[in-house]
Every structure is written in structure tokens, then in C-alpha cells.
TrEMBL record:
Limits of the ZP domain: 40-285
Membrane-crossing residue ranges in chain numbering: 340-365
An example Gene Ontology molecular-function term: structural constituent of cuticle
Domain of life: Eukaryota
Topological type in the membrane: Single-pass type I membrane protein
Transmembrane helix listed as a keyword: yes
Source organism of this protein record: Steinernema hermaphroditum
Keyword Transmembrane helix carried by entry: yes
Signal sequence, renumbered to the chain: 1-26
GO cellular component: plasma membrane
Compartmental location: Cell membrane
UniProt name for this protein: ZP domain-containing protein
Length: 368
């Protein structure tokens, strides 16, 4: 199989006062992935294998988990490399689905061809396995002696739900990069083939830093735990929920994503969907590590938002040229001051002495 390679980038380096301009051609790492990775979805682990064009001398690891030795592989000298990820380690995300019914297990793998750095030939793969729930049918022979009434049934598909972080409001575009404090809109939306059939309640939400640390946002009843992170949700429609919020991030962790559960229930005829009865939330935070907590909802599905890269902004004081270019001229308060040398001070004292003696003489002449 032929491999397409982009032309190298030209780097121009100017050597001032030392010689002519030198042109250096950057040399990329001479390796690449051949074909598609081989994925094996096991009962308790995912096995990923890659074939490379040349012997592999880099690193293969789970994104955000390079510091964990169980989440990386540094096999060198072979054209095949791979890694096995157990569901209980390395942040393998598991999401329950009702349509289709089963569980999605997903993770993100980085294959880096340089032993130390990330280069342009490196690749990132989103790996996902789906484990479908098995339907068992029991058959038994039954002799019928007389005519029976036939029963016709129709299965209504369960709604398909998604969780998006939108820019500004409910009609904004999905956010991938955002600054701290930027206003966004959390939206949960389910699509159904029928109307006035289902209701939804969002509950058990948490924010995750992709490295094993998570903080809960909504409890099992769908109520907010920290109003500064996410307030109580609004439900404008039967299968839509949302709330405005501002972007934040974990300390020294640029990426984060959100994960929730959505309970799907049947809607009673001529009634409104039941909603959580929540009080005003207080500020409450609790870090959670380990496997996800199971909640007692039979018809709940898991939804996860896109990963957001949160960017910090720093205030810089404007420089003097920037202030002057804006038409503002800085001024300093001026204080009047007089400085005297030694001779000037002596002349002043002499003048004062003469005036004093003249005044005394005038007084004496009046008395005589």
C-alpha cells in the first residue's frame, strides 16, 4: 500500500552579522501507520494493535494517561505494536444505550513515533466498542384445540439522546475551545419517532478531567449540587433540557468533558411530564475516583458531551505606546518646589536681617 507524504516544511534561519541566510529542510520521523488498527472487543477489555511501515521506536498510550504505566506501551524494534486496556483502568468510558440497547465502551489512543516528543506524523484514534444486549426467545410447542384471537403488537423505538455544550445559547454551535468564564449552554435533547409518548429527566451528572478525577454536578434526583458549576435545569419541551453556565476547568488540566444519565419514561395521556422538585443549590463539591456509580434507574441511558479545551486568559497592563496610540496621554501631578543653594540662602538671610534692623531703627527714632 502506498503512503501519501506531505512535502517537508521549509524553515528559514537568518544569521545576522555572521553570514548569509541559511535554509534548512525539516526532516519528519520516517514512519507511519499502515492500514487501520485492529480492534478486538473482549468481555472485559479492548485489545488494539497497529502495523507500522518501519520498526516502531515510539510510544503508544491512552490520551491523558501517559503517566500511568498500565496505560502505555513502549515496544520498540517491531513493525507491530499494541496495547490491552481493561475496563476498570485507563479511563475507558462506558455509556448505556437504549436505542440500540447495549453498552458503548470507548477510549482515545495516541500513537507517537518519536520517543520523547509529539510530531506531525503521530496519530490519535477514537476507539469504540458496542456490546449489544442479547434477546432470548424461549419456544415451546402448544396444541390449540379451538380458534384463538390473534394479537398484533408494534414496538416503538426508544428515543436517541445526545448532550452538547453550545456557544452562548440553545441555538449556538458546539464548543471545542473556550476561554475561562465564557458563557455556554448545556443542552440535553432526545429525538423520538413519535410525539407525546416519552418524558425525560437528566440526573447524575459529573464533570471529568479525562485523568480519573470527577466532580458531581447533578444528584440522582436531577438537582444541582453546585450553583457555580451548573444550576438547576430547565425543561422547555418534553424531551429537551438545558441551562446556561460559564466555562471553568480543573487546576493544571486543560481538557474536560461532562457525563450524565437520562431517565426515559412513558408519558401519561393528557398530562405534563414530571420534573425534579429542586431547592436552590448550595456550593458543594466532592471529588470522585474509581468506577462509575450505579443508580437505580431501569430506563436510564448515559450521554457524554464533547471534550472542551479550556484556555486561561491573563490580564496584561497596557504599555505606554499603546496608551498614547489610543489618544490617552498620561500626566503626572506636578508639585511646585524651590531649591536654594548655599549662597542664595545666605543672601536671603542677609536681606531679612537688614529689614529687621531697619524696622528696629525706625521704632527707636519715633521714641526719640
Amino acid at each position: 500500500m502506498s503512503t501519501f507524504r506531505r512535502p517537508s516544511t521549509l524553515l528559514t534561519v537568518a544569521l545576522l552579522a555572521l553570514g548569509p541566510v541559511a535554509v534548512i529542510r525539516a526532516i519528519p520521523v520516517d514512519n507511519n501507520v499502515e492500514g487501520e488498527p485492529e480492534i478486538t472487543c473482549g468481555p472485559d477489555a479492548i485489545d488494539i494493535n497497529f502495523k507500522t511501515r518501519n520498526p516502531f521506536t515510539g510510544r503508544l498510550y491512552v490520551k491523558g494517561r501517559f503517566d500511568n504505566g498500565d496505560c502505555r506501551n513502549e515496544q520498540v524494534g517491531r513493525k507491530f505494536t499494541g496495547i490491552t486496556l481493561n475496563f476498570e483502568v485507563c479511563g475507558v468510558t462506558r455509556l448505556r444505550s437504549l436505542n440500540p440497547r447495549g453498552i458503548f465502551a470507548s477510549t482515545t489512543i495516541v500513537i507517537s513515533f518519536h520517543p520523547l516528543f509529539v510530531t506531525k506524523v503521530d496519530r490519535v484514534y477514537k476507539i469504540q466498542c458496542f456490546y449489544m444486549e442479547a434477546d432470548k426467545t424461549v419456544r415451546n410447542q402448544l396444541d390449540v384445540s379451538e380458534m384463538t384471537t390473534a394479537l398484533a403488537t408494534h414496538n416503538v423505538p426508544m428515543p436517541v439522546c445526545r448532550y452538547d455544550i453550545l456557544d452562548g445559547g440553545p441555538h449556538g454551535a458546539p464548543v471545542k475551545f473556550a476561554t475561562i468564564g465564557q458563557q455556554v449552554y448545556h443542552q440535553w435533547k432526545c429525538e423520538s419517532e413519535t410525539t407525546d409518548t416519552f418524558c425525560m429527566i437528566v440526573h447524575s451528572c459529573k464533570v471529568d478531567d479525562e485523568r480519573g478525577t470527577s466532580v458531581p454536578m447533578l444528584d440522582a434526583d436531577g438537582c444541582s449540587l453546585d450553583k457555580y458549576v451548573l444550576n438547576n435545569l430547565e425543561y422547555p419541551e418534553d424531551l429537551t433540557a438545558g441551562q446556561e453556565a460559564h466555562v471553568f476547568k480543573f487546576a493544571d488540566r486543560p481538557a474536560l468533558f461532562f457525563q450524565c444519565q437520562i431517565a426515559i419514561t412513558l408519558k401519561e395521556p393528557a398530562t405534563d411530564c414530571a420534573r425534579p422538585n429542586c431547592q436552590a443549590p448550595e456550593r458543594k463539591r466532592r471529588a470522585v475516583e474509581g468506577p462509575p456509580v450505579e443508580f437505580p434507574f431501569d430506563n436510564s441511558i448515559d450521554v457524554a458531551s464533547q471534550t472542551i479545551e479550556a484556555i486561561e486568559t491573563f490580564y496584561e497592563a497596557p504599555t505606554l505606546p499603546a496608551i498614547e496610540s489610543g489618544g490617552v496621554v498620561p500626566r503626572l501631578n506636578q508639585v511646585s518646589a524651590h531649591c536654594f543653594g548655599i549662597f542664595s540662602l545666605g543672601a536671603v538671610l542677609l536681606c531679612l536681617g537688614v529689614l529687621l534692623l531697619g524696622a528696629i531703627g525706625g521704632i527707636l527714632l519715633k521714641r526719640t
